[in-house]
Amino acid sequence: MSEATASATARAGARSVIEAIAAPHDGPVPFSVEFFPPKDADAEARLWRAVRIFERMNPAFVSLTYGAGGSTRDRTVRIAGELATETTLLTIAHLTAVNHSVGELRALVGAYADKGIVNLLALRGDPPGDPLGEWVKHPDGVEYAAELVELIRDLGDFHAGVASFPEGHHRAPDLVADTDNLVRKLRAGAEYSVTQVFFDVDDYLRLRDRVVAADPEQGAKPIIPGLMPITSLASARRMTELSGSTIPRDVEERLMRAAGDGPEEDRAAIRAVGIDLCTEAAERLVAEGAPCLHFCSLNFAKATSEVLDRIGVDTRGAFAAV
């Protein structure tokens, strides 16, 4: 790593997400990108191609997910460390409570700190095998994300974010309970939340209004919307099934028309409509004052870059060295 890159990395590592999204940026609003740990060497090479492309676009931050039940723990810690030390990207590491003791959680936070990562996304996490299955607390762990936020804050000078759910978390009995839980996490010390991917902007706006009504002080904290350009209807349906979220009927109808009547969906047409839908959502979110746009990239850069280009982010040259 060059001296200039090392210096930039050190500066990025000390910055919080709140500072990053408030900093000057290209385009109408800051954006950020979510990656996930690859399963093999080929997938890891693809991830790094996407990382380098996005790095040239200057996202406010990037995040790296954590496999259900810690199934990708070692790979996640390694790659998060490489993102933090070998790029200029501000890196957020996901930290989940499921299947981990307090001692293991402390060790994970320490491992991230050793790589200069001070921004963590505190998540309760999904059970391994069946994300919609029964959630079982580790006998020596924590049960709720609010407790995880408190643990992170108690360990030193860290910045914690949490998840939020525009449609309500699938385990919450209703939207009131879901809102109360988000407020509880924010009161515990979370500085912002990042939403689950959604396809109806009204759901995001109603979430924002609910939090402000429940606690104006906590409602002032950023709620960063999660977006994903749909490139496969089958994959989008599977993702929403596993997350307990939904694809709005009007959105699904547009995608179904694009898919066609053949035995296989028309992927090119689906992709075109998916990028249109994501662009429309992004434009409305910008108009409604969203503090940042967080893109679930699936470790690919092209579709997200097309949306960014359409909303006024300069993506020229990002693919030049690929």
Automatic annotation (TrEMBL):
GO terms for cellular component: cytosol. It comes from the Bacteria. GO terms for molecular function: FAD binding; methylenetetrahydrofolate reductase (NADH) activity. Signal peptide: none annotated. It catalyses: (6S)-5-methyl-5,6,7,8-tetrahydrofolate + NAD(+) = (6R)-5,10-methylene-5,6,7,8-tetrahydrofolate + NADH + H(+). Its cofactor is FAD. It holds the Pfam family MTHFR. Pathway: One-carbon metabolism; tetrahydrofolate interconversion. Keywords: FAD, Flavoprotein, Oxidoreductase. InterPro entries: FAD-linked_oxidoreductase-like, Mehydrof_redctse-like. GO terms for biological process: methionine biosynthetic process; tetrahydrofolate interconversion. Belongs to the methylenetetrahydrofolate reductase family. This is Methylenetetrahydrofolate reductase.
